[in-house]
Amino acid sequence: MRAGQYVEAVTDATFRLAAGECLALVGESGCGKSVLASALLGLLPGNAETAGAARLSDGLDLMAADERTLARTVRGRRVGLVPQSPAAHLTPVRTVRAQLEETVRELAGTRGTELRAAAEAAAARAAYPAGHLDRYPHELSGGLAQRAATALALVGDAPLLLADEPTTGLDRDLVHRTVDELRAHTRDAGRALLMITHDLAAAERIADTVAVMYAGRIVELAPAAVFFGRPGPRHPYARGLLDALPERAFVPVPGAPPALGALPAGCAFAARCARADRTCRTERPELTEGVACHHA
To answer: Are the C-beta atoms of residues 286 and 270 closer than 8 Å to each other?
Structure first.
């Protein structure tokens, strides 16, 4: 991408997410997943431009809300965030305990002698070990930083939780524990979860719906039972993601995604697709009945 060049990082991303449901947004790195989460909370760089609407159940449009509203009434309270690269979002000069206590005090109103116990309970919900609460962020492994960020995100019991790669750096047992906690936080408590992940095994464990993003667009939107079961994905890229799993065919998707600043005229996946024809290379498929493919 040339200096000063604008690109459309996410386009035509349309979906609904009900209370008690989890939507897993999956795709390769650089396809726009994290940009979408940042846009919902107004965390994009100052020169970014957004359009469209993202409405909460009470009617608030996140895309139209000003910074004051987002900071005081949305972030942490109505929409929680487990950030990507959590170590970069933890305050480096304060212990994990101090950050949890501050968040509990601000969002839950807990004071006095109950504050310490509430912070420890928040850590336990994210499988963060009590013996590491007095450590500083630079003393944490990647997995511990991930669990600390998850604990902070769960404090406010927000109706909507955005979890951006919440299982990065965790071993498989902790992945299962984290996913199960997120599922309990949402499905069992009537909250909604948008989980951004490249871990399809984790998505299969928790998701009600799967959205596959490629080159800034959602190319397939399907119930998880259909996506991971029968008849399975209909888009060639989505099928390729499943086939690349070790427990399946273990065959990687050939090639690499196009640069967002140089997308082809037709289907962005055409250069990597064995089924691509002239129509695919000249006409962009729209998302119709849950899939954006001329041959679906």
So the answer is: no
Helix, strand and coil in the chain, % to nearest 5: 40, 15, 50
Confidence of residue 296 (pLDDT cuts 50, 70, 90): confident
Q: Which helix (H) or strand (E) holds 228?
A: helix 224-228
Strand 79-82: give its sheet, edge to edge. Answer: 79-82, 160-164, 192-197, 22-26, 209-214, 217-223
CATH label of the domain that carries residue 38: 3.40.50.300
Phi, psi of 114 (to 5 degrees): -80, -15
Tally of domains in the chain? 1
CA dihedral over 258, 89, 146, 67, signed as positive or negative = negative
> What predicted TM-score, i.e. pTM, was given to this entire model?
0.92
φ, ψ of residue 207 to 5 degrees: the values are -75, 145
Determine the Cα angle at 27 with ends 25 and 29, to 5°: 115
Domain that holds residue 209: 22-223
Secondary structure element (H or E) that encloses residue 118, with its range? helix 114-125
> b/e map of 38-70 (b: 16 or more CB within 10 Å)?
bbbbbeeeeeeeeeeebebeeebebeebeeeeb
Question: CA–CA separation, 296 vs 276, rounded Å?
Answer: 12
In a domain, 191, yes or no: yes
Residue pLDDT, tens place only, 19-55: 999 999 999 988 999 999 999 999 999 999 999 999 9
Which helix (H) or strand (E) segment holds residue 128: the answer is: none
Do residues 294 and 287 lie in contact, with contact meaning Cβ atoms separated by under 8 Å? no
Burial of 161 (0-12, 13-18, 19+ CB in 10 A): buried
